[in-house]
Amino acid sequence: MRSLIDVTELSTSELELLVKTALDIIDNPEKYAEMCHGKKLATLFFEPSTRTRLSFEAAMYELGGNVLSVTDAAASSASKGESVADTAKVVSCYADIIAMRHPKEGAAFVAAKNADVPVINAGDGGHCHPTQTLADLLTIYRNKGRFDSLTVGLCGDLKFGRTVHSLINALSRYANMKFVLISPEELKLPRYVKTQSIKQKGIPYEQTTSLEEALPNLDVLYMTRVQRERFFNEEDYLRLKDSYILTPDKMKLAKPDLCVMHPLPRVNEISVAVDKDPRAKYFEQVSNGKYMRMALILMLLGVIGE
Amino acid sequence: MNIDSIKNGVVIDHIMAGKGMQLYDLLNLDSLDASVAIIKNVQSKRLGKKDIIKIDADINLDTDVIGYVDPEATVNVIKNGELVEKKSINLPKTLTNVIKCRNPRCITSTEQELDQVFNLVDEKNKIYRCIYCETQA
């Protein structure tokens, strides 16, 4: 039984198959409209994330399948003390595939070990969020036409930002990459991510606290939100949340074909005025998430691939 | 300092000085109803200083635990006052229910029936990571 907990479980050829399938879905949606007819996706969300849940549900509906939804842990058996393992076993009896979000790191792994159907990790605390990375990768591919030979800037909360860690991990498998890590001192990329995903692979990188200095050289800029829920301390959050804000003035420093991305939701780190800039791709990134989730559901249900 | 030799039991020798107590705790030797001697800072030609644990009971020790604390330690099994076996100790690939994940956000912090499992991810630097949340041990 194949599940997806971390994006690096996908080989580069599987990733390419997902991208190819997503691009085909974009061009020929009618071809896929009944591919999951009679199949059910259960979305088990133990912490709020409306957009990820809606994206999974939209993906399944567009494949002609149905959705069983648990949106609130308080309304589920978890509040009565049921374990993740038992919940996964029970839901396996009703659904053909499960998308699960849980505040605890490793929860999706436990679910996957116990479920009789594929489990997709829709976010496990600050650990992994592979389908966000798939959305990010499709956005890069649609705008740059490649995954190699890119200078990618990552800005904001690089310490707690799991989407950043996953994206670096996924892109570090391609040739001629360069990373520019833009963050305040307190939110720098953790050393183990830097060592394992960048240094050990001999990938060039720069670390800077200045977004302006980094901007002119970037092909891709990945902005992130300083997330309140990842802090134990409100004071630290308030002090750091406004560290890096992208504005139309700063955009003047960037290449004409820069691709600006953000996993959303944003608070104020990208000014609304930047939305009109054709280089702003963060809303396209949202629809790319749905297409990649469609492709992933097809792969895990065995409709595409081996 | 004199400690009686044991007749039937186990001697864990060549433990890196200072690690004897940690090994005693992780092997749960406090719950053993037998004579146990922890000898600290014994002079050693090979190590300079070493710790030794002598257990006066014929028990099977978890060699993974010993390998995790100190893969250079040696385990001698004594029967009728004679050395009958030297057990080889290696750095274990996986540790199950030996140490606990210290990440408060890990699923094992709330679901305590789950096994605490760590995998060896970097042999050279002896780094273990939790299989659930990947936090370093």
Describe this structure in words.
- The complex is a heterodimer of chains A (306) and B (137).
- Chain A has 306 residues and is α/β, with parallel strands linked by helices.
- Chain A has two domains: 7-128 and 287-300, 3-Layer(aba) Sandwich (Rossmann fold), CATH 3.40.50; 131-285, Aspartate/ornithine carbamoyltransferase (Rossmann fold).
- Chain A is 39% helix and 14% strand.
- In chain A, strand 6 (178-182), helix 8 (191-199) and strand 7 form a beta-alpha-beta unit.
- In chain A, helix 4 (84-92) crosses helix 5 and helix 6 crosses helix 7.
- Chain B is mainly beta.
- Chain B contains two helices and eight strands.
- Chain B has helices at 20-26, 63-69; strands at residues 9-16, 36-44, 48-55, 74-79, 82-87, 94-96, 117-122, 127-130.
- Chain B has a five-stranded antiparallel β-sheet, covered by helices on one side. A three-stranded antiparallel β-sheet of chain B has the order 6-7-8, covered by helices on one side.
- Chain B is elongated and about 50 Å long.
- Chain B starts with 8 loop residues before the first strand and ends in a 7-residue tail after the last strand.
Layout of secondary structure:
The complex is a heterodimer of chains A (306) and B (137).
Chain A: H1 12-27, H2 29-32, E1 40-45, H3 50-62, E2 66-70, H4 84-92, E3 97-102, H5 107-114, E4 119-124, H6 130-144, E5 151-155, H7 162-171, E6 178-182, H8 191-199, E7 205-208, H9 211-214, E8 220-223, H10 234-240, H11 248-251, E9 259-261, H12 282-300
Helix pairs in contact in A: 1-6, 1-12, 3-12, 4-5, 6-7, 6-12
Chain B: E1 9-16, H1 20-26, E2 36-44, E3 48-55, H2 63-69, E4 74-79, E5 82-87, E6 94-96, E7 117-122, E8 127-130
Antiparallel strand pairs in B: 1-3, 1-4, 2-3, 4-5, 6-7, 7-8
Keywords:
heterodimer, A: 306 residues, alpha/beta, Rossmann fold, 2 domains, 5-stranded parallel sheet, 4-stranded parallel sheet, 12 helices, B: 137 residues, mainly beta, Alpha-Beta Plaits, 5-stranded antiparallel sheet, 3-stranded antiparallel sheet, 8 strands
